[in-house]
Write a structure and sequence with these properties.
By secondary structure, this protein is α/β, with parallel strands linked by helices. It has helices at about 10-20, 35-40, 50-60, 70-75, 100-110, 125-135, 160-165, 175-185, 185-190, 200-230, 235-245, 265-275, 285-305, 335-345, 375, 415-420; strands spanning about 1-5, 25-30, 65, 80, 115-120, 145-150, 165-170, 195-200, 315-320, 350, 365-370, 380-385, 405-410, 425-430. About 40% of the residues lie in helices and about 15% in strands. The strands form three sheets. A six-stranded parallel sheet has the order 3-2-1-4-5-6, sandwiched between helices. The mean pLDDT is about 95.
Length: about 425
Amino acid sequence: MKLCMIGTGYVGLVSGVCFSDLGNDVICVDKDLKKINNLKKGIVPIYEPGLEELVLKNYKNKRLNFSTNLKESVKKSDIVFICVGTPTKKNSNSADLSQVYAAAKEISKSIKKFKIIINKSTVPVTTGDEIEKIISKKVNKKFFSVVSNPEFLREGEAIRDFIYPDRVVVGSNDSKSQRILKSLYSPLISKGAKFLSTKRRAAELIKYASNAFLATKITFINEISNLCEKTGIDIEDISIGIGLDKRIGSRFLRAGPAYGGSCFPKDTKALVSTADKFKTNLSVVKSVIRSNDLRSDLLSKRVSLILNNKIKNKVVSFLGVTFKANTDDMRDSSSLKLIPFLSKKGAKIKYYDPTGSKKEFKKLKNVEFSNSIQESIKGSDIAIIHTEWNDFKSINFKKFSKNKKLIIYDMRNIYSPNKIKKLGFKYFGIGR
């Protein structure tokens, strides 16, 4: 099939590349000429394992192309995916849908034959209705169908999640689009993916409800970890114990910093905003947002306590600063609160992340990027393992045995406390 992906951000690029790898002809469109030219050279704007290889492979095989010409790309395509950003509005919890509606207006100028317009961006309930209204101002409804097809891609594992999804959700108010999209996704369905056909509004809400539930699991186990720290219980035992219950499941029960990234923070807020619009109180989700907002403050205070409230001139090493491993995404990472907090208190901060230095910290006083794990830890008073990169799971702390003052604060619980203590270091974890 001939597909057009509007937007070459995380969702649009990964989905477009994977669709091309399944044998479809795909055009990825973006306004950013520099980004498009780089993509043609195989230079990928995001860090995602395996993505660069797939871009090069499918561009070479001419199944994948990149363009700034939206009008022509839509004309050449049978199915058009809207994959633009829906960030949180300033001074509001609601989603900013301006890019979605702008894309819909542009699409309406190029429809001459029947096309399926798929909203893959994460959007509130009724957004599809609005897209339909926008396009129908210029195009007869018989020439297009608006569908909701939410993505469920995890950063760092996006390609695998696309190829082997738990489910494919297609929300459409007409059977023709459902049949066509079931055919498009047939290679994934044949591998075991469940194909769920719903009404359009239901598909929009499924995405938000899924993310809110996962955010709730993370927040719940983080709060339980606080209790564990007060009672001398290891949170790992609790996570395993409740995770073995099939009704609960073990995933997303790892205590650690506040959740962050491109989805959970904005989607929980947007869901609450939507509920408020329909005069429905989502008290659980509101509590999750509040608890998560307080998480970084709580961890900042714990760092202070670990250092006996003597932060000034202390050398602090951060291992990892992205919100999770295998991504360069800094959005709503707890490091964006922790590092400025320590910097203002007078600490000297060194950080290492496999995805390189971060512009977010360049203006902060006494914060510098280290080129290696060793460089970051050397001479530090405390090493904070913030992100669970594989690189950090096998650090040979024996190399730093001369530094008896070194404290290990393991925010991901990737190390055995006893092993670290036997090396002569003080160890602190989460919920331990």
